[in-house]
Amino acid sequence: MTPVATHPILQSQPLGPQWPTLDPFLFCAHHDDAYPAGNAERGPAVPLEGREMGSDFSRKDGWSMYHGDVVPGFPGHPHRGFETVTLVRKGLIDHADSLGAAARFGGGDVQWVTAGRGIQHSEMFPLLNTEQSNPLELFQIWLNLPAKNKMVAPHFTMLWNERIPRLVQQDDAGRTTTVTVVAGGLPGADAPLPPPPESWAAQANSDVAIWTLKLEPGARWTLPAARGASTQRMLYFFAGAQLRIGDAEQRSHAALRMVAGQDWLLENTGPDTVECLLLQGRPIGEPVAQYGPFVMNTQQEIMQAMQDYRRTQFGGWPWDSSDPVHGDEARRFARYPGAAQDEVPEPAAG
After folding, report:
1. If you average pLDDT over residues 290-300, what whole number do you get?
2. Reported confidence tier of residue 333, pLDDT bands at 50, 70, 90
3. Which of 232, 259, 286 is the last residue of a domain?
């Protein structure tokens, strides 16, 4: 019998630009950029002097250009051997890739890309509002692939905000907790949307969960135990003043490695809304070799990935520029490879 833990937190680390992760996750970044009004080219309508253009992570004036020169964002770049899961909380992202897929998404939408044997994609942040500011906030999460799936065909999908399951629960005092379920089941929420077919999250015993939590001031909610005995769980407390987890009072934003096999009562003990991101899963438990955008199991496989990319460009780049954007209309859509028509968000059933 597993002994009952009396304290929920195994380790606490402060949050920086990139957040610490546990196997099967590789990387988690929280981008929160207070972009100004846009110009006719959909870039910032302010001078860009003083920034290291092409690699601006300065957060000068509260925002960065990243690798963008005109429009902020990440022009075409390759990936192999893992998946990217992008949760957009504010603003819009324009996606384009070597499969020919394109999308404009935001406001709660999630994009899930299985890089597999290789894909190029761009992620640009068009500033469509020319009269007011253009805030952007997102999480980008890298989820590893097991060795047997690292060379699967690449796959692109959208999880539209309107279709993502949510649990909205009030405690005895009528205070509300909302849990958004990107991956992994949660009692009381609708059935989870299926992850890409070759994802580690699609394996029956992976116990992968990607949730965001929002607790009103004073709200109490019980975080249920993970299903798997070996599941690892990280709770990122990133907004709000105070959060009590079991007997632990958390007064600073942190990545909290938690005891996963037990229920824990969460309580917002501060005056502001508390928000958290939860990442959990059974570890893949394989060696990780990484070189920038390539994640494999051995250094030899990394060398092969670099050679393959130089030789094939992972299918080439079917776009006129390395940083395509999709017009001035704030219309969310996805154009899948080979599709004749765009997919657009539809309301949830019921």
Report:
1. 97
2. very high
3. 286
Q: Is residue 298 part of a domain?
A: no
Q: What is the residue range of 220's domain?
A: 164-286
Closest CA to 206 of 214, 217, 195, 216: 195
The CA radius of gyration of the chain, in Å to the nearest whole number, is: 20
Residues 133 and 148 in one domain: yes
Q: Residue 31, annotated ligand binder?
A: no
With contact defined as beta carbons under 8 Å apart, do 216 and 175 qualify? yes
CA dihedral 189, 242, 240, 60 (to 10 degrees): -130
Q: How far apart are CA 310 and CA 118, in angstroms?
A: 12
- Give the pair of three-digit tokens for residue 303: 């060398």
Cis peptide before 24 (omega within 30 of 0): yes
* C-alpha distance across the termini of the chain, in Å: 43
Q: Does 174 lie in the same domain as 136? A: no
Helix (H) or strand (E) holding 209: strand 209-215
The reply to whether 121 sits in an annotated binding site is yes
Total of domains in the chain = 2
Q: How confident is the model at residue 2 (pLDDT cuts 50, 70, 90)?
A: low
**Same-domain pairing of 159 and 260:** no
Q: Give the span between the Cα atoms of 336 and 342, in whole angstroms.
A: 7
267 is in an annotated binding site: no
Q: Choose the final residue of a domain: 112, 131, 163.
A: 163
Q: Are 35 and 90 in contact (CB under 8 A)?
A: no
CATH of residue 73's domain is: 2.60.120.10
CA distance 164 to 291: 33
Residues 176 and 261 reside in one and the same domain: yes
Q: Which amino acid is it at 162? A: E
